[in-house]
Specification:
By secondary structure, this protein is mainly alpha-helical. It is built from six helices and five strands; from the N terminus they run αααααββββαβ. It is 56% helix and 10% strand. β2 and β3 form a beta hairpin. The strands form two sheets. The chain has a three-stranded antiparallel β-sheet with strand order 4-1-5, with helices on one face. The C terminus is likely disordered.
Amino acid sequence: SVGAWKLGYEVAAAMVLHVKKSVALLQELKKSRWLPPFNDKAIKEVVEEMRSDAEETKALMAVHQGDEELPQEVVTGLILYMDLVDRNKRCLLAYLNARLEMLEALRWEVGLMIPADKLEKLHEAEKQYLNNYNSALDKYMKRYVAGCKQPLDLTADVEAPEDMNVQVRVVVDDPSLGDIMTTDSGLVRLRTGYQVNVKRSDVEHLIRAGKVIHVPTHRGDVVGGGF
């Protein structure tokens, strides 16, 4: 009928608009080198679409509340509106979950020293999630077995290093580096251009974060401290 065709056309047109908004969020993730800035505006727009579709569903049901059997075009409309809500919901959950997975992976890659350019792309709720994740991981590493005296760094390399000590050079001008307390060498000052010989486990997180680089040495080389 004409009514069914008109309803189907309107819903199909709305579906195209919905697809553009929700899928655009996932496309942002795919195109980004790491994570794009949290798109709060787009998420609110998609949530509003879901609310609007839910209201349309209620309105259709209310009009035919007393009917023993719903017309076929109404059933079709209800199914399409519910599909729209479900699609938007799945897209939003995929967007949020992918971002959280990237945050967890970053924690294992660089440790606690999250680069500032990455932090500024996060929503406040994501920053809180990262803090909670750090706390849970830190708590486990300190209490992995009852009565343990030394923490177990699960984020360290899974492969044993060739040498316990390594030479590293500071390549990032980052005031937050400052001085670090090492296991064997005590307090080590880190400044741009400094090259120091330290225990690898003390600077593993800095190597992963790209703040210092491992300088390969030969056994005959003279290994010194900072300069």
